[in-house]
Amino acid sequence: MSTLKLKNKVIKRLESVDEAHLLEEILGLLDIESKERIVKIPEHYKNKLEKSLSQKTVGNTIPNKEVEESIEKWLYK
To answer: What domain range is 23 assigned to?
Structure first.
């Protein structure tokens, strides 16, 4: 299907949409496609991330298998 046909099909579908939240979602999708999206990370998240990276660097980690086993014990206690 050509680009023009696709655009016309989209326009016809949009004209029949009555739900504001759906139109907002569509606009959001179009914005993502049309411009670079910059995400600002809150300072408290940056601080937590830095702490986590520091812990990883010094080897202060728990193997995933141990975490999964702890969760299993906790869930089925």
So the answer is: 3-34
For residue 74, give the DSSP letter.
H
30 and 48 belong to one structural domain: no
Task: Determine contact, residues 61/55, Cβ cutoff 8 Å.
Answer: yes
Instruction: Tell me 59's DSSP state.
Output: T
Radius of gyration of the chain (CA): 23
**In this predicted model, which residue has the larger pLDDT, 66 or 33?**
66
Query: CB neighbours of 41 closer than 8 A, spacing ≥ 6?
Result: 49
CB count, 10 Å around CB of 35?
8
Q: What is the pLDDT of residues 39-49, one digit of tens each?
A: 778 899 999 99
